[in-house]
Amino acid sequence: MNSAATPVRRQLRVPAVPPSPFPFNPGSLLSILDLGLEGLTRLLARATALESMDPLVRDRLLAKRRVALLFYESSTRTRTSFELAAKGLGADTTLVSSLSSSIEKGESLKDTGLTLRALGAEAIILRHSSSGAPWLLEKETGLPVLNAGDGMHEHPTQALLDLRTILAHLRPGVETIAADTLAGVTVTITGDILHSRVARSNMLLLPRLGARVLLCGPKALLPEVAAATGPGVAIERDFEAALRQSQVAMMLRIQAERLAGLQLDLEEYKTAYQLTGQRLAALAPQAVVLHPGPIIRGLELTAGVADGPQSAILEQVKNGVAIRMAVVERALTASEQGGRA
Amino acid sequence: MTALVIRGGHLIDPAAGVDGPKDLLLKDGRVAEIAAPGKLKTANGAEVIDASGLTVAPGLIDIHVHLREPGQGYKETIATGTAAAAAGGFTSVAAMPNTTPVNDSPEITRWMQAPERGAVVRVFPIAAATRGSKGDAINDFAALKAAGAVAVSDDGKPILKDSIMRETLAAAARAGLSVIQHAEDTRMTEGASMNLGPMSFKLGLRGMPPEAESSIVERDIRLISELRESRAHLHVAHTSTAAALAAVRQARRNGLRVTCEVAPHHFLLTDEHVGMYSTHAKMCPPLRSAADRDAMIEAILDGVVDAIATDHAPHAVHEKEVEFERAPNGIIGLETALGLCLRWLHKEWRLPLGRLMSLLSAQPAALLGLKGRGTLAVGSFADVVVFDLNAEWTYRAREGKSKSRNTPFDGWAMQGKVHWTVSEGRVAYKAD
Asked: Cα–Cα 20 to 30 A to A59, which of A177, A330, B37, B354?
């Protein structure tokens, strides 16, 4: 019956899609797209500068400024590194998590945000299980909002720390980020792409620097539509074929909490997609292995690979603190500098 | 009873085949006389509306609105919803039963039509097809019809079970009522908050596949073809996909009594308009792909679509100021329908004015069997809209009559300004 659909005969003018008004605050980092190449260059340089700065000097940069961490989902790495980053710059931080706060009593995100603002918060770092929540919070509070992961959507600081890690390995010494900085580099992201905010932010970031992103995984976790994200993103379902082309292998966790009834045979999954020492040695002996964590040893990668010489997983964690220092500093100083970083 | 004369306007009444300058005399709630300009015989003492330079047409009829009463008066009341209708040129609205409690009884059906509700235009209740709209046990359609229901529907939800839908179609046909289906296979849309496609992937939101709509429409058409002798009438609410329209088109070729409506947002917007999680672009069925939107336009121009209906769905501001996935479905539409239809369907896409007015009045009246409405022939109800066809204006939601503000069309350019709306001979709306 679908064949009965009548083809459109005319070329019609239709209402335009209005441009996005976001971000409202120049200090916000909602999407990785909020940073252009120049902004990326500045941010990465600042991360390096802050990392090597005397902690007692650094401590005065944002002395007594107030930063709120608002976490609606559990987190180890992101929460701790944002907190250490803000504290490392001298800011006071306060953590509000969905358990142990009025969120449990039904307070809305808007009201929680307005309350934090009234308490003097100058920026809010938000982790939320609903895609798009940081956009709502920014619109309602007007504060700089840092997206620490929203649902299945984005995780921009993770993409930034991934980029810093990739550059350290493949482009050491590069200071200016340009459209060809990662030309010739293939990054394969393997696993649960559908539910991954890390994948989405990296898919939006790495091709802008000239990298090719290959997505790998079974159809249930990687729909064809993912390839429509933009230029430089393609699907390669054969894990070994993808590995063979890769300078970076980014492995993702199966997100059991977001599968929503999806049935997945884990043994089959491991056979097809697990990163083993054997596969790595045979197909990508030089590749850098990344993983945003938390890792499940023995599922998406073996313990040997996680702990092996090609693994940069703990470097990523370390880079997270430097990147988040730069992002928090930008949040509190972007408007003073008069414009978008 | 006072009489009202509408003088000097251009009358467009497609059902009566009228398209020319006419004066009208309205008396005792009915159209008493139509004459060439200045030629009314019995206009003495009547109040006069000067419609010089304006268009006069049968009052608009929206067969799909949510007036939220009983039970959700903080979103809208029958009084505010009908005031919004009148401001938009509507003189009749058919109110869906997903109220609190659900309108599945003759008592609620009558309550909604009681004078105490303060309606300024005619409200025609659509009663729930099944008890509590739970899709399990069908209601007493004859009793509901006797109480004033003009159709049955579980709108907001589908009638999912084959056996219940078959029984609903057959029983409604016996009672002489239409069945309005909210076509959504909810087994395919669990946890989804927008259309399935590149945009839902990009935004990290679970998507509703177009098949969730079309498969139910196809199933319903199959059921109605099995009930052919019964004269059952299936009406597909808020059609949003090319595949569902194709099914309706084919059913009509096969001579089945299947009709459909399209909402302005579905022929104007796509899932790209969700932008960065605008909850004013969240409704069910969702905004679809550009190809689906184009198919809506094409089907309206081709005449496959039987009615424009707004699916006016008010929600309080705080209910829409939440995470996209948590926001309720729906947008208001009564005050923007005519302005958008004239701006886009008529001016931009060249749908003749008579056909547009028919989609907004005569056809929906015929579809629900609203006798004496959708035309201004002598003897009909004196339901009239008088508007300036060429006036351009900007819609401001905060200036609207509806209690709610949830619309993606705030700040949009509109064409055609309503000056008067007359409901059964009484002025229900007059522009400032």
From this structure: A177
CATH number at residue A178: 3.40.50.1370
ipTM at complex level: 0.94
* Residue A256: band (very low, low, confident or very high) from pLDDT cuts 50, 70, 90: confident
Q: Please tell me whether the peptide bond between A23 and the residue prior to it is cis, using omega within 30 degrees of 0.
A: yes
Domain count, chain A: 2
Helices (H), ranges, A259-308: 266-273, 277-283, 303-307
Residues A244 and A257 in one domain: yes
Answer for the pair A131, A57: CB distance below 8 angstroms, yes or no.
Answer: no
Which residues from chain B sit within 8 angstroms of residue A8, using beta carbons? 291, 294-295, 297-298
Q: Which of residues 79-138 of B touch A (CB under 8 A)?
A: none
Residues A39 and A116 in one domain: yes
Q: For the whole prediction, is pTM greater than 0.90?
A: yes
Hey, of B188, B240, B268, B277, which one would you mutate to test binding to chain A, going by the most A CBs within 10 A of its CB? Answer: B277
Same structural domain, A54 and A73: yes
> Between chain A and chain B, how many beta carbons pairs sit less than 8 Å apart?
119
Chain B, residues 236-255, CB within 8 A of chain A, namely: 242-243, 245-247, 249-250
Our answer to whether residue B271 is catalytic in this structure is no
Domains and CATH numbers, chain B: 3-56+381-396+413-430 (2.30.40.10), 59-367 (3.20.20.140)
Q: Which of B201, B204, B205 is the closest to A225 by Cβ?
A: B201
Q: How far apart are CA B205 and CA B301, in angstroms?
A: 33
Phi-psi region of B115 (alpha: psi -120 to 50; beta: other; left: phi over 0): alpha
**Does A6 reach chain B within 8 Å, measured CB to CB?**
yes
Q: What is the pLDDT of residues B272-306, one digit of tens each?
A: 999 999 999 999 999 999 999 999 999 999 999 99
